[in-house]
Amino acid sequence: MINKLSYSKQKGILIISFLIVPLLLLCLFSLYPAVYLVYLSFMNWDGYSPVKTFAGFANYKDVFANKEIWQAFSHNFVYLGWGLLQNVGGLVFALMLNSKLRGRNGYRVMLFMPYIMNGVAVAYMFNYVFNSEYGSLNTLLHSVGLDSLAISWFGSPKIVNHVLGFITLWKFLGLNMVIYLAALQSVPSDIIEAARIDGASRMQTIFHVILPNMVRVIELNLFLTIIGTLEIFDLPFLLTKGGPLGASDTFLTKTVEMAFKFNNFGMASAMSLTLIAAVIVILSVQRLVTRRWSD
């Protein structure tokens, strides 16, 4: 019967047929959970009772009035600082390894290798590095006579987030390098040659020719970095459990704690939506800054 239809109608039916399953999956696993999350944020629910009571904006008021939650959110900005540093480091290594450096492919593999490692494995590996009792770092410091520097890396409230931030830098530096390498290789070589012929130094060529042609990629990398650092969960959960005394809690670990430890899924949902709103605001500022720089 479909053979009797016109070509345009057959094409439309075929396209719709192929789109039905992906759209159903999208609605089932993305749109429905998002709508249900909004619904739960206005409810009081313990996660297992069939009864949900309407709470209005009470959950959101509790979120904004809770100082512990926003103290935990401030820890995310430590990760953001390390994330910006990993972008700078990735760009520097990309510039170095985009040149005719001997053994550059080996260096690329070495820098990218940490990214493909399992996150749980990375967490436990660094647990043996920074452990205050049997960690390899403190053992090394003791062996060279630097006993005063051998501290409890995960037990110091002032240092613990920077230690965790360093681990994220170690893991994701290679990914940033690979993305920037791809962007560098897409920069037209003729404009670089023209800049050198005009007498531009290497630094002038980088800042005035190469980087302006990489603005979109830098913007994308910053986008991914901001999302990743504001939603970080695995490292503090696996290595410190938010300790000591909540010093390494992040917004997401507090959200999970609110849901599964205190059985307050309504407030946890409100926290999730608040985090989404905060990410949108910060990304908007980042986009405004990068657009002004590109202009």
Overall description:
The chain is an all-alpha fold. It has one domain (63-294): MetI-like fold, CATH 1.10.3720.10. Helices cover 72% and strands 1% of the residues. The protein has 13 helices and 2 strands. A two-stranded antiparallel ribbon has the order 1-2. Helix 10 (215-230) packs antiparallel against helix 13 (265-294). The longest helix is centred in the first third of the chain and has 34 residues, at 7-40. It is globular, with a radius of gyration of 25 Å. The mean pLDDT is 89.
Summarize the structure.
The chain crosses the membrane at residues 12-39, 77-97, 109-130, 163-184, 205-230, 265-285. With 295 residues, the chain is mainly alpha-helical.
In what order do the strands lie side by side in the largest sheet? 1-2
SS-based class: mainly alpha
Oligomer: single chain
Number of separate structural domains? 1
What is the fold named in CATH at topology level?
MetI-like fold
Share of helix among residues? over 70%
| Count, helices | 13
Unreliably modeled segments: none
Largest β-sheet summary = 2 strands, antiparallel
Identify the CATH class. Mainly Alpha
CATH-derived architecture:
Orthogonal Bundle
CA radius of gyration is 25 Å
Q: What is the overall pLDDT average?
A: 89
- The shape is globular
- N/C terminus separation: 57 Å
Secondary-structure element order, as H and E?
A: HEEHHHHHHHHHHHH
Total beta strands: 2
Protein name: ABC transporter permease protein YurN
Pfam family, one: BPD_transp_1
Keywords: Cell membrane, Membrane, Transmembrane, Transmembrane helix, Transport
Subcellular location: Cell membrane
